[in-house]
Amino acid sequence: MYCPHFQAGRCQSCHWLDKPYTQQLQLKQQQLTLLMAPFSPVELLAPQASEEQGFRYKAKMVVLGSVDVPVLGIINPQGEQIDLADCPLYPASFAPVFALCKAMISRARLTPYDIANRRGELKYILLSQSLHSGRFMLRFVLRSKNCLASISKHLPWLLQQLPELELCSVNLQPAAAAILEGAEEIILTSQNVLAEQLNQVPLYLQPQSFFQTQPVLAARLYQTAARWAMAIQQQQGAFSQIWDLFCGVGGFGLHLVQPGQRLVGIEIAPAAINSAQRSAAELGLANVSFQALDASAFASAAATAPDLLVVNPPRRGLGQALCQDIERLAPAWLLYSSCNAASLAQDLARLKQYKLVKVQLFDMFAHSSHYEVLTLLKRNA
């Protein structure tokens, strides 16, 4: 991928862009191989490669510049304001939307927030697109409600210019700190979710619910997990119960559950749980329970284990306490999806009752050192 900002030294966010993509993938696979070596995986599969550009369907832009000449991008380490509206990581469809966002900033007189002087209102523009429908979710992150009326006033103009805009909201983040979003979200459109569909599974994205930035590889990740689970059941019989901890909007669980099986999904964010429940209802799944609870607390209180436990924790991993509860509950099979192979390795060392069966890398984050890993573990007999 060629990026003029990287070549000019203006933006180094894609810190591996100086390496050919094949080399990037080799380095990631080598690192993963070293981290997994102590656990003697039965199969270390070939990595799932990414497209080299246009793969990122979620943008988080700092709003800089002025009301009349807004800049959407970053402040680089040299203190320069860099406009990344033409960043090649995003699909071509993002550029005209960024242009409309800039026009909206000027029309509505949304003053960019000045970090040094703690003045201004608009901090971030957060834009997501559905791979399935092509429709957008746009969020304005404000310091206060001072500009809320102006955004509402000019929103009909924006909707007229961008009929693909499904959901628009304002997020309030009053803290004078580099925090992306606050707790309060104000929906400005009749629609409060962005519909996505991966592998014929409907998923509904709300403004503060987590979802992968690269839906193409997310679809492959979910499909692979479903294929691995099906292979186990073809050999030993169907699972009766599946748990999906840190389930988000239900991506893994909804891909895995089969008719007649019970699925329990646990996620601390109520908005994500609402989305998962909607998807389950649309799929006609009756024996499914999604609950807004802390995953560690749920596991700690549980007395019986599922046949298959799915975990997709944040970068910090599962941690000692949750690993101990997994060992106590002793599910026969464990599917662990991780965005941090180092914390994954720490957790695998804690799960002494389990054998690592399969490992596969999914390169969600091309041109960086980050990647996603899917692992399958079996409890020792």
Structure report:
There is one protein chain. This protein has 381 residues and is an alpha/beta fold. The chain folds into 2 domains: 4-52 and 214-379, 3-Layer(aba) Sandwich (Rossmann fold), CATH 3.40.50; 58-191, Beta Barrel (OB fold (Dihydrolipoamide Acetyltransferase, E2P)). Helix content is 31%, strand content 26%. It contains 10 helices and 17 strands. The strands form 3 sheets. An 8-stranded mixed sheet has the order 1-16-17-15-14-11-12-13, sandwiched between helices. It has a 7-stranded mixed sheet with strand order 4-3-2-5-6-7-8, with helices on one face. A two-stranded antiparallel ribbon has the order 9-10. Strand 12 (262-267), helix 7 (270-282) and strand 13 (288-292) form a beta-alpha-beta unit. The longest helix is centred in the middle third of the chain and has 22 residues, at 215-236. The model has no long low-confidence stretch (mean pLDDT 96). Belongs to the class I-like SAM-binding methyltransferase superfamily. RNA M5U methyltransferase family.
How would you summarize the topology of this molecule?
Elements lengths: L3 H4 L13 H16 L6 E2 L13 E8 L4 E6 L5 E3 L10 H15 L13 E8 L6 E7 L5 H14 L3 E8 L11 E4 L6 E5 L2 E5 L9 H22 L4 E5 L5 H6 L5 E6 L2 H13 L5 E5 L2 H7 L6 E4 L7 H11 L3 E6 L2 H10 L3 E9 L9 E8 L2
Helix pairs in contact: 3-4, 8-9, 9-10
List keywords for this structure.
alpha/beta, 2 domains, seven-stranded mixed β-sheet, 10 helices, Rossmann fold, OB fold (Dihydrolipoamide Acetyltransferase, E2P)
